[in-house]
Amino acid sequence: MIPNWNGKDLLAKYLPSVAAALAGNPENEIVVVDNGSTDGSADFVRTHFPKVKLLALDRNLGFGGGSNAGFRAASNDVVVLLNSDMRVESDFLAPLLEGFADPLVFAVSCQIFFSDPQKLREETGLTQGWWQDGSLRVRHRIDTAVDGLYPCFYGGGGSCAFDRRKFLELGGFDHVLAPFYLEDTDLGYMAWKRGWKVLYQPHSVVYHEHRGTIGKRFSETYIQTVLKKNFSLFCWKNIHEWPRLISHFFFSWAGSVLSVAFGEIFGRPTPYSLWRAFLQLPQAVSSRWRARGLARVDDTEAFRRPLGGYYRDRFAAMERAPERLRVLFVSPYPICPPTHGGGVFMYQTLREMTRLAEVHVAEMLDWPGQAEANEELRTWCASAEWIVRPNGLPKGSGSLLPFAVREFANEDFEWLIHRQMFLQQIDVLQLEYTALAQYRGAFRRIPTALFEHDVYFQSIARGLGHMIGLSAEAKARVEYLRALRYELRALPHFDQVQVCTPQNRRFLLEFLPGLAPKLRDGLRAGIDTSNYEFRLEGREPATMLFLGSFRHDPNRVAVDWFVREVMPLILKRLPEARLTIVGSDPPPAHTYADAEGHLDMLGFVDDVREPLARYAVFVCPILSGSGVRVKLLEAFAAGIPVVSTHVGAEGLAEKDGEFCALSDSPAGFAERVVKLLEDSGEAAAMARRARAEVEANWDMAAITKKLVDGYGELVRGKRG
């Protein structure tokens, strides 16, 4: 069906492609709905396309009204609605019809390209919708990984197939949105709320001469006014959850004031557009009453279901106990190479998990050049996908959300997660770090787990008083309050929360005692001890090693404290002593000019096992943070004796001298370093005990086996 108004030239140009595509089945029909054209369109169709059914209206009913008349006149169960400026591929029809094998499908959208390949692809057919700042937001996505039927927010009115019965049951395109725009969005949203589905079919290809009709006949100012008016009317009609509606009224009022004060921008309502909407209030109230009566799910659910992960969770057939689980492992940092402790935990967990499950990875990179190193994941994981995180500080400095959460908030990353959950038929969603808690879902049959590499608000609290500068201290205190609020609200929504140590677990239970059944320790922190050669002999005398990325605040604070407070005390006893610092993003050499001649900064090294086997004593002067330090596990495994603060050795050692030497004061820390440098026998004995501890309790293979077994229990529980 093709609605037309004074588009004879477009019919002449594009109708032949439609006729050719439908010629294979004599039961197919083409309906042209002529909206009272004055350019001879109706006569043109009668003369040149006598087999086309012509519905000639005596007046212009607009896109929606004309389309509704065409649906009522159509004979077949599926109606493909096309704009008059749409050219179709010869094989576009069959893929569209595949979607209607599912009786819940309301519409199937084509993939759209522009006739002019040089134009920016503003519409694709793969639509997405979400609620933001009191209003509906919509967009088209370009995603070549979507290679089959996929859920979308709505089917574009000019390039979509509809179930005719369902279309008429919803009342067709609503005249309240006349003369154009958002009628299709409105209908798609109503379909999702009715409990139906809207799908996108990339194999059904059409070409659009964008705004070949509307853009030639109306000014841009008029088009934008209609668009803003209809966004308001959409909300008045379709949004039935009062918190959303109240936010809509607030942002509409505020936006119109800003438009007067600072000028109009795209998407912001104006007083005139609101007035135009208000004039249609009686019609909107009537439409709202009907929409409420048709709805079977609420607004929150209707916004969720078009997302890939939710669609799979709500509709897909799933085994109660899959023989081999499919896990989506999501990281905010590049996993290869593992440049920090958390990276080591993730990398080694993945290596072991791939032996036990089908593992898919989604991660954020800091810059495009990191993609080459992360190609490694694709050689031993089932799949690995990533996006490059935008540069710059995140928006919302006055927000209640922690900086770390805002830093990793990304619409494209959320889309990637949902896409992979759908395409890879994911059974378990594993999120890494508190910052990714924002991507948790309200899934009914897909368990979601979060690994708290450190308890974020605890880590910040321990750093208070140790920050460098008043400004940094003030920011840390604000971030602590944000983190406390966010973390305690987010954790109960997970099916499993993993922490490094029993101490971390006890700490969280003081705040969230009801979290006990979901809170697990001993499932993630570990290393593959077989990768580390245990070496006691041949180490360079009077040398110390610190290992850690300087992107992590606790490491920066630790080095600053050690160099300024502890190092001078060591040099008084051992003037020949030297400290080597290994880790990415080190500070400039002049930062610690007073220690010149006793300090070497190597920066990032490809393999930390070389420095772990070379130097005499490992120092861990950590004053803040939370969780298990992978650097200590690696040091224990490599045979280098360790001196640490109690915070640095949390979860690994409690007794001074058992697995490592412990002290929190500069004098005590210096004394223990000197003692180990001078007494090789005691240092070796302690190193042997540390290696045995790692082999017995922190081996990654055994830990990951328990982790995957736990996934299986979660899946069976949620699908029982």
Net shape: elongated
Structural class assignment: alpha/beta
What portion of residues belong to β-strands? 15-25%
> Looking at the chains present, what oligomeric state does this protein adopt?
single chain
- What about the largest sheet? 7 strands, parallel
Number of strands: 24
**Mean pLDDT metric:** 94
Distance between the termini: 46 Å
The helical percent reads 40-55%
Low-confidence stretches: none
Account of the protein in words:
- This protein has 720 residues and is of the alpha/beta class.
- 42% of the residues lie in helices and 18% in strands.
- The chain contains 27 helices and 24 strands.
- It has a seven-stranded parallel beta sheet, sandwiched between helices.
- The radius of gyration is 31 Å and the shape is elongated.
Give the secondary structure arrangement, pairings included.
Layout: E1 2-4, H1 8-21, E2 31-35, H2 41-48, E3 53-57, H3 62-73, E4 78-82, E5 86-88, H4 93-98, E6 105-114, E7 127-132, E8 135-140, E9 150-151, E10 159-163, H5 164-169, H6 183-194, E11 197-208, H7 214-217, H8 220-238, H9 242-262, H10 271-278, H11 281-294, H12 299-304, H13 308-315, E12 326-331, H14 341-353, E13 358-365, H15 371-374, H16 377-380, E14 383-388, H17 403-407, H18 411-423, E15 428-432, E16 448-452, H19 456-463, H20 470-490, E17 496-499, H21 502-511, E18 519-521, E19 540-547, H22 553-573, E20 578-582, E21 599-603, H23 609-614, E22 615-620, H24 630-638, E23 642-644, E24 661-662, H25 666-678, H26 680-697, H27 700-718
Parallel strand pairs: 1-2, 2-3, 6-11, 12-13, 12-15, 13-14, 15-16, 16-17, 17-18, 19-20, 19-22, 20-21, 22-23, 23-24
Antiparallel strand pairs: 4-10, 5-11, 6-10, 7-8, 9-11
